[in-house]
# Entry
Amino acid sequence: MEDSYVFRYMREKDIDQVLEVEHASFTLPWTREAFYNELYNNKFAVYIVLEHNKRVIGYCGVWIVVDEAHVTNVAILPEFRGKKLGDALMRKLMEVAQELGARTMTLETRVTNEIAQSLYRKLGFQNGGLRKNYYSDNQEDALVMWVNL
Ligand SMILES: CC(C)(COP(=O)(O)OP(=O)(O)OC[C@H]1O[C@@H](n2cnc3c(N)ncnc32)[C@H](O)[C@@H]1OP(=O)(O)O)[C@@H](O)C(=O)NCCC(=O)NCCS
# Structure
């Protein structure tokens, strides 16, 4: 079978597979309820999944408030990393956010997450400030990054 990759908006039926990506990617994974709330109760939230042959292998999300887009999460399943899919997913998110009216995009990333920072820099993000002790598992600081869309 030929490989097919599809980007589309996340739906409730994707939550199980998104949770797999989430648990394989973060030390403080979001819960099922958190994703459910994002989909149904947060009018600012937009979530996109990346499917490989109908299986969700990555996802990302953003809150769009007026003209500012705040990225909540970006993750790719470990076995699919290093294939430019995170790059493609972020570019898709930037495109969608722009279409929905955002003019800037911001995000926080762990100061030690050099892979993510390298990806964001490649996409034009610049360093903003630090949020001290932002992550509750190890009190790590967050680096704020931003880009004009
Ligand atoms: C961050 C993440 C989404 C990147 O996805 P990916 O598909 O592996 O990344 P890509 O293959 O698209 O690579 C894009 C860029 O990321 C950086 N990158 C990716 N893998 C890297 C590695 N092993 N070492 C250093 N930089 C790396 C590079 O800048 C790369 O660009 P290049 O290939 O031109 O050098 C993925 O590593 C992930 O899910 N990590 C766990 C969750 C996470 O940390 N999310 C970000 C939270 S802020």
The pocket of coenzyme A is lined by residues 25, 74-76, 81-87, 109, 113, 115-116, 118-119, 122 (CB under 6 Å). The longest strand covers residues 55-65. The domain at 5-148 is CATH 3.40.630.30 (Aminopeptidase).
